[in-house]
Amino acid sequence: MTPTRLVVLAGPTAVGKGTVAAAVRERHPDVWISVSATTRAPRPGEIDGVHYHFVDDATFDRLVADDELLEWAVVHQRARYGTPRGPVDVSLAAGRPSMLEIDLQGARQVRRTMPDAVFVFLKPPSWDELVRRLVGRGTEDDEERARRLDTARDELAAESEFDVTIVNHEVHAAADELVALMMLGPERHDA
């Protein structure tokens, strides 16, 4: 059975996409994970080239104009995020299990250009837990938190657009479930 090579992981803000991706990176180094470009400033502890490629607006504009992004979007009415196309192509050409950790808008764009990918929705155990995680990060002020929670309500409503849902009860379990899914054959996504 041929492993699924590209998985697209998306879900609402503060669901733990980045944390689950970090756990996949740590526990399954054979899986390649794309590093997105963004125009937002780094959060405490984030490293350029590891968590994101932090770029200015002019650099992002050039990436868009030169068609160097597989997908891109304005997120939370502020910063732009996008997936550099080149590294994805190289990883897939090498036959390496690969994952994109992106937002809902980006997942929709990738579905149009790479419909054979497996689209995984990462869901919180409950709305209250999502709110607790967002508040617990302590990286957004009250206005930004409210904006992100409004966006999260819309994002949660998009779950049916995805092939598979994983509930993020516990980070390592979610990461292992995601990698197990990558290793199933394409005909097994509904398992």
UniProtKB/TrEMBL annotation:
Domain Guanylate kinase-like per the UniProt entry, residue ranges: 4-183
EC number(s) stated in the UniProt entry for this protein: 2.7.4.8
SMART domains: GuKc
Gene Ontology molecular function: GMP kinase activity
Catalytic activities: GMP + ATP = GDP + ADP
Main location group: cytoplasm
Mitochondrion is among the record's keywords: no
Alphabetical list of InterPro entries matching this protein: GK/Ca_channel_bsu, Guanylate_kin-like_dom, Guanylate_kinase, Guanylate_kinase_CS, P-loop_NTPase
The protein's role, per its UniProt record: Essential for recycling GMP and indirectly, cGMP.
Name of the protein in question: Guanylate kinase
